[in-house]
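Hi there,

I know you've been waiting on this one. I reran it after we fixed the sequence typo, so this is the corrected version. Both the input and the resulting structure follow.
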Amino acid sequence: MFRKKQIPQKDYDRENWKPILKCSICNGERVAGFKNIHTGEFREELFIQEEAQLEEFRQRYGITELPKEY
């Protein structure tokens, strides 16, 4: 039987960084990453090409809410 691929769990600094999905209005590109709540710096983690990648990003970091930023 086939097993579902295990996604390794990672953590991030929840006090200083918040997860966001940066979206381009022009071409629809999406990048998942973290934004520093103090400086506004964005740290890119994953270029999203399909919904499965987005779901994997959410599961890896235990994220339930992922706001979009344009």
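Quick highlight: The chain is about 15% helix and 35% strand.

Best,
R. S.
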